[in-house]
Design brief:
The structure holds 2 protein chains of 2 kinds. By secondary structure, chain A is mainly alpha-helical. Chain A is built from 3 helices and no strands. The N and C termini of chain A lie far apart (about 25 Å). The chains are: A mainly alpha, B mainly alpha. At the A-B interface, helix 1 and helix 2 of A face helix 10, helix 11 and helix 12 of B.
Chain lengths: ~55, ~280
């Protein structure tokens, strides 16, 4: 599967204003998900973020 | 003996018909495929190349029969060249010429001289060259044109499109997306891969300019069309090396961030869906 890693890396590579806009959209998406789905999606996102270089 | 209606004792019909065939039939078929060039499928390239081969074959054959370069072989095989009769004052019958098979055949309007050509071992060399030529003009030419279209899509996306004015770029991208939507999924992904692979190597401003227009045109499409293109885009990005993929995804998300809020939301949701489900 195309994991969230590429998406997290892409978010990290963006300029600050666009990154903020898109992260806000992503968080709104998380907020609208059912609990179970949200937990899975957020865990995937966190795991992807943790693979990014410091 | 019929009236002398031919060129140099041969029949020009094949030459004329082959030229007409190439111009009218093949040209008409090319027009039917239409523009832009990515609308052409591999099957259509096969048909186009086959029409080309057929037309050129008849053209060359007819030309050869007019030039009469095989006269020696023909005579050795026992055929008498037609002008030999005509050039004799009074005609062949009046001079008691033997009734030998004639070359080119008087009835050979299109491919005169076919019988007289197959006369010796050199024919095998000729047939080998003919087969080699057919292989060059059919499978290799089709493959070359397929690869050429891949390269052209990349070149136009990464080099030409950024040089266009915004309205022209928008018009070209809209036409390109129209054409992509008409293709089979695999071919759609193939061209989007070409585009993304090339754009990923362009300077940051060029990447941003192309992607911004691409995303804006995409956002203006009906949902079903947008989904088809985004699905293909995700599959195309999945085939890129990681560095290029991340760069292009960043470009796309930056372009999506500039859309109005409601479009942005829908876009982000689709991106997550399609990009998550594509096998790598």
């Amino acid at each position: 599967m195309m994991d969230m890693r590429s998406m997290a890396a892409a978010l990290a590579a963006m300029f600050e204003p666009e990154r903020k806009t898109m992260l806000r959209e992503r968080l709104l998406m998380f907020a609208e998900m059912p609990d179970g789905e949200r937990a899975v999606a957020m865990r995937q996102m966190m795991e992807a973020v943790s693979t990014l270089p410091r | 003996m019929g009236p002398c209606t031919s060129i140099a004792g041969s029949r020009p019909g094949g030459l004329v018909l082959a030229a007409l065939f190439l111009v009218v039939v093949r040209g008409g078929y090319k027009r039917r495929i239409g523009e832009p060039f990515i609308r052409e499928t591999p099957a259509q390239t096969w048909v186009k190349s086959a029409l080309f081969l057929l037309g050129v074959f008849v053209l060359v054959w007819s030309w050869m029969s007019i030039l009469d370069t095989e006269k020696a072989d023909v005579i050795r095989a026992g055929y008498r060249h037609l002008p030999a009769f005509w050039e004799t004052p009074g005609g062949a019958e009046e001079h008691g010429a033997p009734q030998v098979p004639q070359w080119p055949s008087p009835s050979g309007f299109i491919l005169g001289g076919m019988r007289g050509i197959f006369v010796g071992p050199w024919n095998w060399v000729g047939l080998g060259l003919l087969a080699w030529g057919a292989v060059m003009l059919l499978p290799f030419r089709v493959l070359a044109q397929h690869n050429q279209r891949y390269a052209l899509v990349g070149q136009r996306s990464a080099v030409l499109l950024p040089r266009f004015s915004e309205p022209d770029r928008t018009r070209v991208v809209a036409k390109m997306q129209d054409a992509l939507l008409r293709l089979r999924p695999r071919l759609r992904e193939f061209y989007l891969q070409a585009m993304n692979e090339a754009v990923a190597t362009a300077p940051v401003d060029d990447r941003a300019a192309v992607t911004r227009v691409f995303v804006r045109v995409l956002a203006s499409r009906p949902e079903a069309e947008r989904d088809r293109l985004m699905e293909a885009m995700a599959a195309a990005l999945a085939r890129l090396p990681e560095e290029a993929r991340v760069r292009r995804m960043a470009d796309m998300m930056a372009a999506v961030a500039q859309l109005p809020a409601e479009s942005r939301r829908a876009f982000m949701a689709k991106m997550v869906t399609f990009f998550k489900d594509v096998p790598q």
